[in-house]
Amino acid sequence: MLVINTIRNSARLTLRNAWLRNSLASRTGPTNFSRTFSLGLTLRQQDVVNVTFVRANGERIKSSGKVGDSLLDVVVNNNVDLDGFGACEGTLTCSTCHLIFKVPDYEKLPDKPGDEELDMLDLAYELTDTSRLGCQITLTKEMDGLEVQVPATINDARAA
Ligand code: FES
């Protein structure tokens, strides 16, 4: 009985897919359908950038964003539990999005920090030579697999 139901369901799916393909083909032509489908799928896979946030206690939080997102976007969009992170929502007034990069990753970042970011970094706790503000880092495909250290303490510069 199970085998018969499986065959029936498979036949229904095949018929439904054929109907859908024919329906779309009558509107856009069969070539357009397959091009649109495969291009959309390819772009989506290429846009994903995996990021791991490492807390001071060693806990690793795996997350992901897409090309063009900031590291603040990744934290917000994935509800990454980093207490107080991104308090000013990326307006460069708090320094709570302070992150520490590994040296090779830091050197590969496409942009150097501007004066405003450097001023904010001066107010961050646990500052290192490879510190950046997460709201100022825009993801590129080359950053896939990035690991960033989250300082143990944060300083909200607006509270000073
Ligand atoms: S979120 Fe406030 S400086 Fe980055």
Textual characterization of the structure:
With 160 residues, this protein is α+β, with helices and mostly antiparallel strands. It has a domain at 48-149: Ubiquitin-like (UB roll) (Roll). It has five helices and five strands. The chain has helices at 2-28, 30-47, 71-77, 103-108, 115-121, and strands at 48-54, 60-66, 98-101, 131-133, 146-149. A five-stranded mixed β-sheet has the order 2-1-5-3-4. Helix 1 crosses helix 2. The longest helix is centred in the first third of the chain and has 27 residues, at 2-28. Bound molecules: FE2/S2 (inorganic) cluster (FES). The site of FE2/S2 (inorganic) cluster has 14 residues, from loops. FE2/S2 (inorganic) cluster binds at residues 72, 86-88, 90, 92-97, 120, 133, 135.
Keywords:
160 residues, alpha+beta, Ubiquitin-like (UB roll), five-stranded mixed sheet, 5 strands, binds FE2/S2 (inorganic) cluster, 2Fe-2S, steroidogenesis
Helix content range: 40-55%
Supply the helix-strand structural class.
Answer: alpha+beta
Strand order of the largest sheet: 2-1-5-3-4
Mean pLDDT rating: 82
The CATH architecture designation of the domain at 48-149 is Roll
Q: What do we call the CATH homologous superfamily of the domain at 48-149?
A: Beta-grasp domain
End-to-end gap: 72 Å
Here the CATH topology of the domain at 48-149 equals Ubiquitin-like (UB roll)
**What is the percentage of strand-forming residues?**
15-25%
CATH class descriptor of the domain at 48-149:
Alpha Beta
